[in-house]
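Hi F.,

I've been meaning to write this up properly since the lab meeting, where we talked about keeping a consistent format for the predictions we share between groups. The idea is simple: the sequence comes first, exactly as it goes in, then the structure tokens exactly as they come out, then a line or two of notes. No screenshots and no reformatting. I'm using this chain as the first example so we have something concrete to point to.
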Amino acid sequence: MFSPSGLPGAVHSLGAYVLCKWCDASTPRCKDHICFSNCNLTSTCESDTEICVSIWRKTNDSVKVQTMCHDPKVPLDGVDPALLLNFTSRKCAMVHQPSVKGTMMVCGCQGEEECNDRLIFSKGFSGFSGLQNKDVIGVVVISLVPLVLIVIVATAAFYFYRIRRHDWPSKPTPELYQALAVPHGGPVPRDEGGEKRREDLDIEQEDFHTKELSLRNDISYRSDLQRDDLLSIKLDQMVGKGRFAEVWRARQLHSEKGGVNRYKTVAVKVFPSKEYASWKNECSIFSDSTLHHDNLVQFLGAEEIPSSTLQTYWLVLAYYSLGNLQDFLTSNIVSWEELIALAGCIAKGLAHLHSDTTTNGIPKVPVAHRDIKSSNVVVKNRKECALCDFGLALRLDLSLTVDDYANSGQVGTARYMAPEVLESRVNLEDLEAFKQMDVYSMAMVLWEMASRCDVIGVICSIKFKSKASGGCEQRVLQTMRLVQTQYVETVHRVSVAKELHSRLTSQSTS
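Output, unedited:
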């Protein structure tokens, strides 16, 4: 056998010697933390005491690997002699060596042919990026060029927009109404030239899906004007009052033709400043575009009304002259057809609230109303109605925790509450429980409606107390079973009446 130097060596059995990669310099191929020497020459070591050695050097951007056979007892230039004696593994694990020129790493192995071809680097080696093939650098650079160009173009476009946007004419937006706190008494503020001082009023509001309520106008302060003169919505008459807000019938300036203003009637819920949380919650519910439904009250807009004396918050809704269902049932008796139609409207409105998709299949967040009662249903006509008053509504968002739902409190109106709510036995881990409570409340409303239907024979009168006295919840609990029994009896009577009506109709036609 001959060594790579060409000198004759002793003849040994091939099994007693080690085959090693032997190149003075080769460019490695690397992937992850493994590199291959890329050396095409293989040599048999001269002595059975020699091991396979690889030396990895990085100088500037150049990476080269030197492979050889070497006796660990013989010093090797630039390598710690003690380190060579420790290379007894079958794998060539790279070890860092100090070097005055660039970076140097060494590995040695024995007991396996060409074991110095596969170089194993530590994953934590900070200079490992230098092990990658230089072609990878080119690929990375080419990949980053489009991204850099996009960033440059986007930055230039944004800069151009910020510089030039003040020169563009502002687009007029429809205004729901204008609100301004008018100072009372005192002279009109004037500037140094004696002219009235004009100020830009910029009331910034959220866009609640249907109307843009931002207002930017130049308005003169005039102490002789009443506040309503500055509004395109004028409050006419208070038509209702709840625990959180007053409900007013109002006129909204709709159009102007021939010097004559035309108005349309709207309903305005006026919240005092202390009920800001309720106003904000109802606004957040209405701001969801997926909530729009024929059997939910139509939302027109919302506005914060600044004032030097009393801060108020407005919610503008569609107005229905028949009022709420409670007042309607008090003064009216409904037919079977009207009962079915009105009950269907309530059920469809509640089903849309509880659903996680719209009728078109668009995903939405389910909402629990939590205060369904006859006074929270507005009557459009004798066969159509809609749910209203979402001040206590709760979005059943899956991201909320049990604690979030627990902190929402036990809310609602006692006579419409489900027994588990009154007894504080609601399973807060089950979102369906909130929907079930709404369904129970809806059933109580349907019972009220059925008691005022002409097909049941005896028409019950409905009397509602304006305020609940102390111990109301306890009395409701005590009479709950009686109410449920009466409800079942009423439903049975309605069923019998319907069957009788059907038979009489079929006999008359035959």
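Notes:
DSSP finds nine helices and 22 strands in the chain.
The CA atoms of residues 250 and 406 lie 38 Å apart.

If this format works for you, I'll send the rest the same way.

G.
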